[in-house]
Amino acid sequence: GRYSVLSTGELHIHSVDAVSDSQRTYRCQTKHKLSSEVKLSSNSGRLIVTESHSNLSPKITTTSRQIVSIVGQNLELLCNCQGFPPPLVLWYKFNEKNQLLERLSTLSEQLVPNPRRVVQIYSSLIMKSLSIDDTAKYVCVCNNSVGQDSTHIHVLVRAPLIVSVSPSHMLVGVGDSVDLNCSVLGAPVVYVMWKRNGKPIQCIASNEWESSASSAEVSLVWDGPHFTHTFPPMEPLVPGMTLSLKCSATGLPLPQIIWTVDGQSVSDNWRLRIGDYVSSDGVVNSYVNITNIRVEDGGLYKCLALNGMNTAVHHNRVVVLG
């Protein structure tokens, strides 16, 4: 109808009537949300309506310039306009680039129930069940045969921020790359940041009114090296023969394999070659090849697999006759 009670407690009367509205007294009544206690104001108010005897250019007295509301709520945008002859009020919606999106008004006042979600009733724009798409600049234009006035209201519709990080838990090895995705629902989102205090990694989204966070646990997997293949004991060798020794190991992180003979590092030369490679199943393979073996090549050969977590050792003696 012609009466609206605003969230501030104010009473808004549309299309004031000089006879009926000026003959009434107005009181406000409050009801306690918890106790349901009802109280009536001790004093009352009266409305004084004066008739215009000359033409008046429209004058908008509404002062609201920005309104923040929440998704799902209803909102009434006021455009209090005075003038004579009675002004015509039109509403327009603009985007953040000041581009006209649509004209919201109809030329006739909406006095009956209207199925539309956004509708003009008298000079007010009624918006039901707000959505994020209702965030915009709304312009009220008030004009009659004498002149025109306009005002604008910025409406910001916000939705509770909900943050989720996926995956929420990861097992990784040292040196691995990690991809975490942070999804944010709600609006407006002013900034998103990642933070790590201790183990959990947090994604935080925030705006002027609230912040929300979600976390992910990234755990390092350590696995000490262990051999999957080692060179076996062997019979004494005759000088001039060829010798091939191989050790294979795995672990997290991948181990490094080094070779020693009688406690000294094995070095490449024209008869001795050391090499290694990693197979597709994550196994490190290392070998020592010796051609035209000599007596001095004999000794206690060791392969050592190291990955910072632990060390695995295998050894066998090589005997060269002579």
Automatic annotation (TrEMBL):
Organism, scientific name: Oppiella nova
Major localization class: membrane
UniProt superkingdom: Eukaryota
Entries under InterPro entries matching the protein: Cell_Adh-Cytoskel_Orgn, Ig-like_dom, Ig-like_dom_sf, Ig-like_fold, Ig_I-set, Ig_sub, Ig_sub2
Protein's recorded name: Ig-like domain-containing protein
Any one of the GO CC terms: plasma membrane
Subcellular location: Membrane
GO biological process, one term: homophilic cell adhesion via plasma membrane adhesion molecules
Domain Ig-like intervals: 58-154, 160-199, 225-319
Record keywords, A-Z: Cell adhesion, Disulfide bond, Immunoglobulin domain, Membrane, Repeat, Signal, Transmembrane, Transmembrane helix
Pfam families: I-set, Ig_3
Keyword Signal: yes
GO molecular function, one term: axon guidance receptor activity
Mode of membrane association: Single-pass membrane protein
